Amino acid sequence: MSKAQRLPKRFAPLNSAKGNDIGAPALKGIVFDVDGTLCKPQSYMFKQMRDALSIPKSTDILDHIHSLPEPAQSNAHSAIRAIETAAMVEQEPQPGLDELISYLESRKSSIGWFSQEEEKGLRINGTSGPVTHLLQTFLPGKTFAPIVTREFRPPKPEPHGILHIAQAWELQDEGDGLIMVGDSIDDMAAGYRAGCATVLLVCDGNEELKRHEYTGTWIERLDELISMLDGGFEERRRK
């Protein structure tokens, strides 16, 4: 489902008072990654997970787990769930998170999450997993739907999770009217392949992605998106 190279994507201002002289299409929603995007990166977890599973850095964690027979697969899920549970109490929100989400809610924008975290307790049995913890601790009362977690297959960098969100929003043009915001190459690839505009949140260790073909534009704080959306969004290469 990869897309051929395309022209930069643009959307009309969310602030209708700004006008839309160029006739850009309306933005239909924004999809966010979670770890490293809405909360600060906790990349140390991945080393802990690989150590627990006895796999090298070159092996994808989720692919490895899904390749295991039972009961080894369930045991592996339990091992990494324990690591995530221990780490979630140290979650810190990214700067500008509350300001951006409050702005989007004021503009009645659709907001979805596409996370590689596991969240078996979400709307099922009340167990607080990493995504629920982020919502309850830093964004109480805010609304995100749908929330796609790693139980969904195939995971990023495949675009299927974003397309699932677009379908849940009853969009007919797949990801064409959406923005994907993330901090990894998997986020950018999934967004690009789904037909979304892509926004990279720059942090330590991912600056080389600013120039990647899948990156439409980039920001250094989440609330930088507010002015970009308010006045009309456009993918553009920044220096």
Topology readout:
Layout: E1 10-11, E2 29-32, H1 44-53, H2 61-67, H3 72-88, H4 97-106, E3 111-114, H5 130-138, E4 147-148, H6 160-168, E5 178-182, H7 185-193, E6 197-201, E7 217-219, H8 224-230, E8 233-234
Parallel strand pairs: 2-3, 2-5, 3-4, 5-6, 6-7
Antiparallel strand pairs: 1-8
From the helix content, strand content and strand pairing, which structural class follows? alpha/beta
Helix content: 25-40%
Sheet with most strands: 6 strands, parallel
The percent range for strand residues is 5-15%
> How many separate helices?
8
User: What is the H/E string?
Assistant: EEHHHHEHEHEHEEHE
List unreliable stretches of 5+ residues.
Answer: 117-128
- Name the overall outline: globular
What separation lies between the terminal Cα atoms? 30 Å
**Rounded Rg:** 18 Å
Instruction: Give me the side-by-side strand order of the main sheet.
Output: 4-3-2-5-6-7
**Can you give the mean pLDDT?**
87
DSSP, total strands: 8
Structural overview:
This protein has 239 residues and is α/β, with parallel strands linked by helices. Helix content is 33%, strand content 11%. The strands form two sheets. Strands 4-3-2-5-6-7 form a six-stranded parallel sheet, covered by helices on one side. It has a two-stranded antiparallel sheet with strand order 1-8. Helix 1 (44-53) packs antiparallel against helix 3 (72-88).
